[in-house]
Request: fold
Amino acid sequence: AVILAVGYQPFDPRRKTRFGYGRVPGVMTALELEAMLGQGVLVGDDGQAPKSVAFIQCVGSRDESLGNLYCSRVCCGFALDMAGLIKQGWPETEITFFHMDVQGYGPSWEEALPHMREEINFVRAMPGEVSAGESGPKVCFAGPDSQPASQEFGLVVLSQGLTPPASAGALSEIFGLERNQDGFLADAPGVFVAGTAQGPRGIKESIDHAASAASAAMEQLLSSRKEAAHG
Reply:
């Protein structure tokens, strides 16, 4: 029995050139922001704490032009958790959350959302472009009246989607695995795929899924031993 728990590949935001990653100062990924906050700092391109931060969701997910039609499921919660950390450490920072929909994650989320809406500006619009402004990255989007709008921020954070593991193609050939319509790996006889290698999942769900894969693998091994003993 083989268990494949190879994880996922974060979407490369350079593929969405209109968001300016690697080109516009002050644009970073959510993973880079997490690393920064883990060190207890929050700085923009000018080396100062930004007065405003924008999160752009679904970068690499729910995108027909990329062929990634699925929701990555964890990005909203991940981004809003970091927005909360920013509000705790730098309470004067203004935070704007650009999104299509907001993906919930259980009862605690439902209770926290009203409070989040008091502290965070939720904008249901996908920005069309992020460019260099006079004092920071400028986000262009459709305003409430569907008219073009733009706003500059001290920092723009791109929430990358979850994509199939980089090794998915090679593993599918080695183990004879099918891949689903989104490119993630599927189980095969004797091979059990665990966690995000099979599709987007949160940490708790990935742990539960891994336990299920381990149980299935053990069941197969025990079954094989019984067959061998009676053979």
